[in-house]
Amino acid sequence: MPIIDRRSTIAGIVLEHSECAQVFCDHRIDFCCRGERTLEAACAEKGLEVEEVVTALEHAIAGRKESAAPDPRAMSTPELISYIVSRHHAYLYAALPFLAPLAAKVARVHGDHNPKLLALRDAFEDLSTTLEPHLHEEEGVLFPALRAEPRDHRLIAGELASMQREHLEVGAMLACVRALADDFVPPYWACGSYRTLLSELAALEMDTLRHVHIETHLLMPRFATASANAEQGAPS
Hints:
Strand content: under 5%
Low-confidence stretches: none
Radius of gyration: 19 Å
Number of helices: 9
Number of domains: 2
Order of helices and strands: HHHHHHHHH
Structural class: mainly alpha
Largest sheet: none
């Protein structure tokens, strides 16, 4: 019996089977900001054979390793927020300052050989410049508002809308980084620093996409109705 329903949404598949995130990433299918699309629709949009993608997804599920990682779906809102901050925000706070000088070094040393590395350095700088204030805004305004009792639903509505817009920007920036990095596959002549850069960029992409996926498809829906009412001026 097939594990994957082709009519399922991309986001729903990743929520149910987290190991499928890498398969979607490899096929450049956005499971975060555009995760509401069905698998069939996403494959058609990319010109992919749905059966091939389903086979890859089911192979990933079959090869899943048991993990002690908690299921975010089972977390309360305060627990989910703490998980996002301690797992994903903390990762970015460490990774961004590590990768910036590495990207600059690789561009300086190998930019003449591969001019795309110069553009990659700049694209990563744009990504970092966007992500850092986004994290601070969530931790300083949005997350406290979600934890507060009583909640200010008008404030939350505005913050969630802003978060979603920024997620779309980040998704586009990640796609640009991947393209400039040639899908994170190093050329045969790449030095250790070059290979490390691509490996770490691939890790950053996956962690950020998982991060955005959780916020968009788990955290946001918990407040969607009240936020929509607040935006329309209806009592919440």
